[in-house]
Amino acid sequence: MNFPSNRVINLSAAVGCALLIVVAIVYFQNHLGLEPCYLCITQRVFVIGVGIIFLLAGLHNPSPSGQKVYSGLALLTAVSGGYFSSKQLWLQGLPEEQVPACGPPADYLFDAFPASEAIAMLLRGDGSCAVVQWQLFGLSMPAWVLICFSGLALIAIFQLLRK
Which of 25, 40, 59, 76 is the most buried (most CB within 10 A)? Predict the structure, then answer.
C-alpha cells in the first residue's frame, strides 16, 4: 500500500491544526460568543504548537532521522495538549461543590502578575473551565479537542515508525 509522502502528511496535519484554530476563533468565539477559559486557551496553544511542528517538518522535508525528531516533538506536544483536555474534562465531571472558584480574565492575569505566575494560573484552570458551554453528540468541547489531539498523536506515531 502506498501512503502519501512524509511532506504531504506533515502539511496536511498542519492545515488540520490551522483549521481547528480558525473554527475555535471564528465560529465558537466570534459567532457563538463562547469565551475561552484558561484551559481552552492552553489547549489552543498546544494545537498551534503541534501545527507549527508539522508545518516545519513539511517545509523542511527532513531526512528519515530528522523526520523522527519532528514526529517525536509533535507526539510530545499532542500528548501534552491531551493532558490539558483531560484535565478540563475532569473539572467538568466534578460535583458542583468541588469545582474551584472562578478566577479573573486571562488578560488581567498578565497585567497584574509576572508572566510565570500568570502562565501557572492558566495551566491550573479554574471554575470557569468546569462549565460545559457546548456539546455535540453528548461530548463537550474538551472531549472533541482530546479526540483531535489523539488523532494528531496517531499521525505523529505513524510518521515516527514509518520506514
Answer: 40
